[in-house]
Amino acid sequence: MSNPADQTSRDAIIYDTNTSYFVEAGAGSGKTALLVERILTLLIDEGVPLSSIAAITFTVKAAEELTNRLRAAFTEIAEHGTFSRFGDEVRTFDHPQAKTRAEQALAALPGAAIETLHSFCLRLIRMYPLEAGVPPQITTVDEIETSFATVNRADAVIDLVDRIVSDDPTAQDALAELNLGIPFENIKESIAILTEQGLKTADIEKLVLFMDPLWGVLDATVAAPLPSIQFLTRADLESARREIQEWVDLAPGDVVEDKLFQVKVDPLIKELDRLIAEDKPNYDVPAALGLREGNAGNKTIWGVAPKTYRDRMKEIGAEFERKINSPIVRSISVLRRLIATIVRDNAQARRRTGKLEYHDMIFLADELVQIDYVRQELSENYRMVAVDEFQDTDGVQLRIVDAITAGKPGHRFTVGDPKQSIYRFRGANVNTYLSARQQAEKRGELLQLTANFRSDQEVVESVNAIFGEMFASVESDENDPTAPLTVPYAPMEASNSDSGFVAMLRRPEMNSGAGVPELCEHADIISAVKNAEVALSDIAVLVAKNETALGVQKALREHGIPAITEGAEKVYKDPEVEELIAVLRAIADPANGFVEVVALRGLYFGVSDQDLVESHRARRMGSEIAEDHPAIVAAEHLKKLRKRAASMNVAQIVEMVIDELFILGHLARPETVEKNPSIRRVLDDAHAFTNATNAGLSSFLRWAETQTEGFTGVSVPVLDDGTDAVRIMTIHASKGREFPVVILGGLTGEKDRTISHGLHPETGVVEFGLKGIGTDGLDEFKAFEKLATMGENVRKLYVAATRAKHQLIIPLEAKLTGGTPTKPATTYASTQGKYFYDSLNPDKDLIDPRELFSADAVALPHPRPQIDAERIRATYNKNAKDAEAEPPEMRLLTATYFAHAEETAQLAAIRQLGADEGWLTQTTESFFKTDREARGQTFGTVVHEVMDYFAKQGDRSDTDTVPETDTVLNVVTTVASINGLEPDLIDEASSIVETFLNSEIVHAAFAAPHYSEVPIIGTLADTAFEGVIDLLYQDETTGRWVIADYKTDSVVTTQRINEYFTQLQVYAHLLDMDVCRLELLFVDGGVVRCITRGPSD
């Protein structure tokens, strides 16, 4: 394969380690492979220890990928002294210590600084806890607990504001401690003004949630001067009156007949005269004073362009409005200082306790590296700090990296692509990147990677043509410090000679106004999917918003096309979860009759509207109603739930409601069983909330509201089991991935709206408004935000388009607007796809999909190599198919629970059924004790997840393919860190896994057709069951199936073995396949002890 045109830059990245390169890497350029090779040069050729390298990634997943690539590279070099590059090229390391250095790097890999920036900052803080102002032992708080805490902190601010309004003495004490520099009475007056203006608790909460993760950059906000209060006085009115009268007096013509005079000037003079006659100390001029801009006036009559006077009238109006609103603007500024100060104080409290949230790590590390000797020591310790996805950084993160690497050539290495900067909602600032880029270019450190190894020729050329123009069209002003900087477009060069295919679709009926945009777009997507000659799982529909993804999924499924969404289904927007939340609201707020009605008529109480009307009418008329009336029964049930909830914490309340209303049973039907993870997630969140806070149900519900908004809400977990179905996801979710066929969806939807609050682009002060009146810099912020949003929208479309390998389909079905009865519309509506229309020639570039695609094409899932797994799923879905008429007491149980739970009437009935039908029997195995100590549930989880990993690594028929000890240890270390297993148990877990892997029974299972972590769902005796089979494999002698279960018990009793086999017998029965054997696999004395029985022995 010939070298790409940018090979010189690639060689410099790999071999020139004494220059701090700023690499601009286009989509599909292979940047991660180059970063790996630069690290290899430092470690293997130059002998730099891995502990002196920091590689900072944007996501945990990216860190894991880089770690895995390095592990593979170190392993290969340690064994052969070579490294296999892309294609058939091999890099040979000639240094005599190359293999030894690779072995050393491999050993050091588990503790290497290959991690996200948050983790790297935490590493620095732990190195210097005293200097960072934290205790020696610090703990980190995960995102879910942080979100709980933030909502609680917002509640605390709201409570303080309430106490200020009510003149509570404790509020004065609290404000005195904050040292705001504002008298209490002024604060109280400001809040009263804002309350009259319409301030709501939601406004305060929004500001706290915005400022909380930004506490480290709030100094400018706290220090921002409070604007003075100005009044509109009689002198102001008189001055305006004189100026306007001069226009009339100096006009060369007769203004009386002029429209500008009649409509604007004369009415304004008369209104000013009326106000001046009132002789008040200050005025509140009505908005309809006549100062609006218009287009009337004759230049000959006035002697100047009428626009000059119209503009001046507008300026006068703005001056009047500024003075009238100044008390409100000052009050908003007081509230801003109050909240910012509280947010900073909260952060300092977390610092003192050592309980750190993610954003704390960044800001504390930023403060830390400003200490001279700390910065010097870190600079000497780290030979290279590499930053991937540098376009998604911000000023604080850049400052940290610069502090460690400044003045050290080759110590900093950054890789990014400004065209892919799409994380502004997380604080990423492309201006930071572009400013750093300008400095790097001046120093001669800028390198550009333009070769694209991902996409076919036509895809690359089309993306260049479209987006080259689209990026150039984004508005900016290089001379305005408050304007976003322009992102340059560097054309890509296709390294793949295959032709590829790109089509931009539009139906003629859209031009005549007869088409419905969303329906036409869905039709385009369906046609493209049906005609794509690839597996459905090779097709990705990429959209900007989660709601759009769900709409596309529905349209595809309605046409018989399997489709799954990734991350689009928000847990707290799930209808079944919303119904649960409705019940919880009714419990939390018993005085609110409306929420009670919503709960009673919902899914889980199921009272009809007619029954509710009858109950309401009976209460109103004072007439009797039967005690067993559905509305009365449900209301009484709700009352009992409220009474019981009074003495419970949040987790107990949620668990009680789920249990009492048989919610999991309601959802056990085949068509709704997939909703179970969402309900379980709510329960998990309730437990986490209870563990993290002392707050009650109302606070939990307030937090749940925040999970329905934008990018913040938790998503329904998606298990991608290889199902042949179209993938639908947001553009953000597609970042870093590639697909054979990409279809852009949602282009008929509205453009993203700009946010109403944020940091001023130049001063860094928080700007926000209330009811159209805002802080002094709000207008400048909004102007910046409008341009920044436009630029990011273009970049998101670029990211989406560059995910395509072979085919890129772009449906463009927006409405045409601006037409009249005599003139056809020619302007495309302002939609997500508007940027495409502005960059294309509609007559030349747009194709009618009916001319391109066959209407007879049918989308069929491609045959899967694991066809037996499909039969398994079909079988246990079939088991639950007739469950629609299940009794209300139906509950979803796990097979594990059934096996180990104390006997109940329900469980006894199921056991009797199993005994009668012959598939459930007891064992007489003897008690035994292994040579190990009990290690708990987390230990077992780690072992199971690692075994699942190796089970999916392909054919193990060759003895040489058994993983090496170091490989096992590395995987266990990674999984252990994810699950929080104590470090001193990692070696033992590795030993257990290695014993399993080297056993004859597991080795034979992995060599045969096998499946790991197989989900089971079905019904027994009208009870829904679920579970997971650790290992299902085919016996090579009989061709029948074996169910195996890994066990990490230290003490094994006869009862415990009976319970385990009961669990496996349930699996075998629900599986409804030809199962010949059940196996329990224990590790004892360094070998695997297998206890075996038939499925119904």
Give the topology, please.
Layout: H1 7-15, E1 22-25, H2 31-45, E2 53-57, H3 60-80, E3 82-84, E4 90-92, H4 98-108, E5 113-116, H5 117-127, H6 129-132, E6 139-140, H7 143-165, H8 169-178, H9 184-197, H10 201-211, H11 219-223, H12 234-250, H13 259-278, H14 299-302, H15 306-353, E7 355-356, H16 358-368, H17 372-381, E8 384-387, H18 395-405, E9 412-416, H19 430-442, E10 446-449, E11 451-452, H20 457-472, E12 493-494, E13 501-505, H21 508-511, H22 517-531, E14 539-543, H23 546-558, E15 563-566, H24 575-588, H25 593-600, H26 609-621, H27 630-645, H28 650-660, H29 663-666, H30 676-692, H31 697-706, E16 726-730, H32 731-734, E17 739-744, E18 758-759, E19 766-767, E20 769-770, E21 773-774, H33 778-801, E22 804-811, E23 816-817, E24 827-828, H34 834-839, H35 842-845, E25 846-847, H36 849-852, H37 867-878, E26 892-894, H38 895-900, H39 905-917, E27 928-929, H40 937-951, H41 965-979, H42 986-998, H43 1000-1007, E28 1010-1020, E29 1023-1034, E30 1041-1046, E31 1051-1052, H44 1054-1071, E32 1075-1084, E33 1087-1093
